[in-house]
Write a structure and sequence with these properties.
alpha/beta, 307 residues, eight-stranded parallel sheet, TIM Barrel, globular
């Protein structure tokens, strides 16, 4: 079983990067403020990133299911993702998105989103320290949301700022809400700063780490991603393989690499893992953490022998 623990889906890009608006242009190009960038592969002609496109990618790469996260860059996709979950309940676990940049109304916003049936909430926390009025993860308004999530058995997916800038805040959250299941994104921003501090958060029973975006962080490393493999081994030594999950950050990372390549380096590499460890990293851990009971993808190509 292979489960992508960090991917994105959207119906229409309508987001923000800081104070700049993000709008679709076409052929995978988005406009961020006054600049046009390749935000996804060019064959995403209308800049739509649908569940059906992802399922086709699954068939090609041998992936059975995925955890869908969100980002302010793409805009709030709660409405679309509710439809995805209803249509493909055996393929996707989806997170709702809240605007953590506006703490005052956060609990009320959470209550509305929670009623929509999301099993998790995404917090793109890396933007919060850069705001004119920085938002701490342990401030009362956010702590009230974490408390409600714990009571409802929801999962918090969070991407932290690089290094250890928000680690102390997260430690306060973890200490207070020991039954709140938390997944740390982007493998702790592994190429930047004291990334090990983020990984060590997973020494706590309720915390896990996923590798979404790791191939982009090591994009100059070559498609075998030997340096990424070394960091996965280091993380496994720090917290144990049962706390680590493979993720791709599809489709953004597919600007530089294919979806097959995003998983091949694990399937054909990571020789420091036993077969059982590799199966856990590739999907077993995600199935357990997110309660996913995906149907095995019998269409998928199980032997990946070409780039």
């Amino acid at each position: 079983m292979i489960i992508d623990a960090h991917m994105h889906l959207w119906d229409r890009v309508c987001g923000q990067l800081g104070t700049q608006q993000v709008k679709p242009v076409g052929d995978g190009v988005v406009q961020i403020g006054g600049q046009k960038v390749q935000g996804m592969p060019s064959w995403f002609a209308g800049c739509r990133n649908t569940a059906e496109m992802a399922l086709a990618a699954f068939d090609d790469a041998g992936v059975d299911g995925a955890v869908v996260t969100q980002e302010y860059l793409d805009g709030n996709q709660n409405e679309y993702l509710r439809k995805v979950k209803k249509r493909y309940p055996d393929k996707f676990f989806v997170h709702g998105l809240l605007d953590f940049r506006k703490p005052a109304g956060l609990l009320k916003e959470f209550e509305g989103v929670a009623k929509q049936g999301f099993g998790g909430i995404k917090c793109p926390a890396m933007f919060l320290p850069r705001m004119k009025r920085p938002v701490r993860l342990d401030r009362p308004e956010l702590m009230a949301v974490w408390e409600q999530m714990q009571e409802r058995g929801m999962i918090l997916a969070i991407d932290l700022a690089a290094g250890d800038e928000q680690v102390e805040q997260m430690e306060n959250v973890i200490k207070t809400f020991g039954d709140l299941k938390i997944t740390i994104g982007h493998f702790g921003m592994v190429t930047q700063g004291n990334w090990e501090a983020q990984i060590r958060l997973a020494r706590q029973e309720n915390v896990y780490v996923e590798s979404g975006g790791i191939i982009w962080l090591f994009r100059d490393d070559g498609i075998d991603f030997k340096k990424a493999q070394a960091c996965v081994k280091q993380a496994a030594n720090l917290v144990g393989v049962d706390k680590l999950m493979w993720g791709s950050d599809y489709p953004r990372t597919m600007v530089d690499f294919t979806y097959r390549q995003s998983v091949r380096w694990v399937i054909e590499g990571c020789e420091f893992f036993s077969d059982a460890d590799k199966e856990a990293f590739l999907g077993g851990n995600a199935a357990r953490v997110f309660g996913l009971k995906v149907n095995k993808n019998h269409k998928a190509r199980r032997v990946i022998t070409e780039p």
